[in-house]
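chain below, 165 aa
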Amino acid sequence: MSTWAGRLIRAAAVAALPPLLAGCLGPLPQPLVGLNQRLEAAGPARAPSLAGDWLALIVSQGGRDRVQLVDLQRRQPVPLPGLERPDAQPLSVAVDGRGERLALVRQLEGRTELVLYRRNLMALQPVPLQPPGVPRRVALRADGRELAVEVSRQGQWQVDLIAVP
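prediction:
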């Protein structure tokens, strides 16, 4: 076989490889177009947290950022009474798998704080960091019983795990 024919066969084999591999891996992930359009209509969004049938994110509306919780089964936002303050700036949000607890890092009155919101109580609870530090991002375990928080202390980033009773 000539080198030209060998190159042609190799090129054909290489070109056939991605479709063959994709067939082995199963169907490709697909965007949820209808839900994505509803989320886009709510305004610019960032910092998503997805757990179970719940999506928490920070949405910008009217020049102000606020936390939004979406029930993915109903495809609608749910109210979060007692969570928002007009003088607070949300930075990071996380939701548990039942949509009952949200962890939030926010800036308020010149400080950055970590809080836990319980929907059934419609109440915020501050979460102290020991030793003290500045929280930046938060993740919440699916069962809502533990937080992982990215914290700055003396110029170093660390991750704290915090049990939630």
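The longest strand covers residues 54-61. Helices lie at 3-25, 33-41.
thats it, cya
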